[in-house]
From TrEMBL:
Official protein name in the record: Amino acid ABC transporter ATP-binding protein, PAAT family
Domain ABC transporter: 2-236
Keywords, comma-separated and alphabetical: Amino-acid transport, ATP-binding, Cell membrane, Membrane, Nucleotide-binding, Transport
Subcellular location: Cell membrane
InterPro entries: AAA+_ATPase (IPR003593), ABC_ATPase_HisP-typ (IPR030679), ABC_transporter-like_ATP-bd (IPR003439), ABC_transporter-like_CS (IPR017871), MetN_ABC_transporter-like (IPR050086), P-loop_NTPase (IPR027417)
SMART domains attached to this UniProt entry: AAA
GO MF annotation, one: ATP hydrolysis activity
Record family assignment: Belongs to the ABC transporter superfamily.
Membrane topology type: Peripheral membrane protein
Length: 240
């Protein structure tokens, strides 16, 4: 569904991605782990062209998205992204936050957008917060809204960049639960996270990234129980 071939990204003289060739299958949950500064966010941001690759090819559903003729906005509609910071629209109620893009961008009717929004709020356990404002919600609740808002566009892939890193510890579980439900519903997901429990439980495949390359990858068992590379072993020893 989503492929990269020899993907590189440089910022000035610094090469942050050094030739990444990957293939993400439809319905797959891929978790990316690795030390800070290794290029995980840059990789995710290249996938939906928030960063322009320096070289290499990215194809999404068989189409070369690095081609200058690609309609980036259309592409982004198919890829939901959730960041560490929730970035909800603070002056809009929760339900409005979910309705706005489907109406403005997809041309969905208000009634349909409202129906979709309500059913998504139910999915993330926040039906009672439809009329609340972001500022009145906890961090965990805001992040669940951010996930629902991304889903309101009916994306084909969801990209998550450390979605629980900014949360107080007691709120991490509720967000991971929503992500796990989403994974079980068959959504294709690429998740950068330090939550190794989630990676073990939910990932189909784990990629260990360091210094702009994917050092090794495999099933959660392979990576966590039998890491082959010293860099992977060192990293896991430090965090587990
Ligand atoms: P990670 O998410 O694994 O912590 P990042 O992808 O955020 O790593 O960053 C990888 C490297 O790229 C870091 O050295 C970072 O400073 C650099 N970098 C990321 N984004 C930019 C940018 N917009 N401009 C310059 N350097 C950047
Ligand atoms: Mg990052």
């Amino acid at each position: 569904m989503l492929k990269t071939k020899e993907l590189t990204k440089s910022f000035g003289k610094q090469t942050v991605l050094k030739g990444i060739t990957e293939d993400i299958q439809k319905g797959e949950v891929v978790v990316i782990i690795g030390p800070s500064g290794s290029g995980k966010s840059t990789f995710l941001r290249c996938l939906n062209l928030l960063e322009e690759p320096t070289s290499g090819v990215i194809t999404f559903e068989g189409i070369d998205i690095t081609d200058s003729k690609t309609n980036i906005n259309q592409l982004r509609e198919k890829m939901g992204m959730v960041f560490q910071s929730f970035n909800l629209f603070p002056h809009m109620s929760i339900i409005k936050n979910l309705e706005i893009a489907p109406i403005k961008v997809k041309g969905m009717s208000e009634a349909e957008a409202n129906q979709t929004a309500l059913s998504l709020l139910e999915k993330v356990g926040l039906s009672d917060k439809a009329e609340a404002y972001p500022g009145n919600l906890s961090g965990g609740q805001q992040q669940r809204v951010a996930i629902a808002r991304a889903l309101a566009m009916q994306p084909e892939v969801m990209l998550f960049d450390e979605p629980t890193s900014a949360l107080d510890p007691e709120m991490v579980g509720e967000v991971l639960k929503v992500m796990q439900d989403l994974a079980e519903s068959g959504m294709t997901m690429v998740v950068v996270t330090h939550e190794m429990g989630f990676a073990k439980e939910v990932a189909d495949r784990v990629l260990f990234m360091a210094d702009g390359v994917i050092v090794e990858q495999g099933t959660p068992e392979e990576i966590f129980d039998h890491p082959q590379h010293e860099r992977t072993q060192d990293f896991l020893n430090k965090i587990l």
